[in-house]
Amino acid sequence: MKLLIADDHPIFRNGLKSILIDNFKEVNIIECENGLEALEKIRSEKPDVSILDINMPEINGLELCNSVLKENLSTKVVILTMYRDSEMLKKAFHFGALGYLLKDFATKEIIECINNVLKDIKYIGPGLDKHYTAYLQEDKIKKDIIGLIKNLSQAELKTLKLVSQNKTSKEIAELLFLSEKTIENYRSRICQKLQLPPRNNSLLLWIAENKELLSVTSEF
């Protein structure tokens, strides 16, 4: 088995390396001191698991994790960090990480973490429960919203995208070669399908809160 450790602190790398050698038979440890070197090694060596610090020179751990995802590289990523906040955890999982572990617990938890991610099971280290719960709740809300957007017809979706570009109903009608009344009907149906309250500005408020999700699901 190949394991990659990317961390710019040699003392920490050596300590982690000793733990891994003691717990895994016939393990090959690849050490990297910056993110760029780690990306090159992941491409060439194809480690089974890559353990990445977030704060590294050249490329940080989250950027590296995102590169692994985009390039579809065959390694399972574990983020090892001092960051406890839910925003970092959310980004790590969004970029395809399977494990997120605090350095405070690394020596006790890293073996269990690796065994889980090798089976494609997400691993969240101790001290992160409330952040992971918040991540799951936010993820569920996003999936629910995407589901509602996907219920829109193509005409409604086009209208919604143009509304998000601050176009008036009159301008949208001209762009789509439809009547203004038809666009108003589309807007009304959009609000119903998105389960929005019957207020004049409800659609604009929804767009402001969900513009990122709309850009992901409005390809036509």
Which labels suit this protein?
220 residues; alpha/beta; Rossmann fold; Arc Repressor Mutant, subunit A; 2 domains; six-stranded parallel beta sheet; 10 helices; 6 strands; 57% helix; 12% strand
Overview of the structural elements:
There is one protein chain. This protein is α/β, with parallel strands linked by helices and 220 residues long. The chain has 2 domains: 2-135, Rossmann fold (3-Layer(aba) Sandwich); 150-217, Arc Repressor Mutant, subunit A. 57% of the residues lie in helices and 12% in strands. The protein is built from 10 helices and 6 strands; from the N terminus they run βαβαβαβαβαβααααα. A 6-stranded parallel sheet has the order 2-1-3-4-5-6, sandwiched between helices. Strand 3, helix 3 (61-70) and strand 4 form a beta-alpha-beta unit. The protein starts with a strand and ends with a helix. The relative contact order is 0.09.
CATH class of the largest domain: Alpha Beta
Low-confidence runs: none
Q: What is the tally of beta strands?
A: 6
Order of helices and strands: EHEHEHEHEHEHHHHH
Strands in their spatial order, largest beta sheet:
2-1-3-4-5-6
Instruction: Count structural domains.
Output: 2
CATH topology of the largest domain: Rossmann fold
Helix content: 55-70%
Count of individual helical segments: 10
Main β-sheet description? 6 strands, parallel
CATH architecture of the largest domain: 3-Layer(aba) Sandwich
Looking at CATH, the homologous superfamily of the largest domain is: Response regulator
CA(first)-CA(last) distance: 44 Å
Report the β-strand fraction as a percent range: 5-15%
Q: Give the overall silhouette.
A: elongated
Please identify the structural class as seen in this structure.
alpha/beta
Overall pLDDT confidence = 85
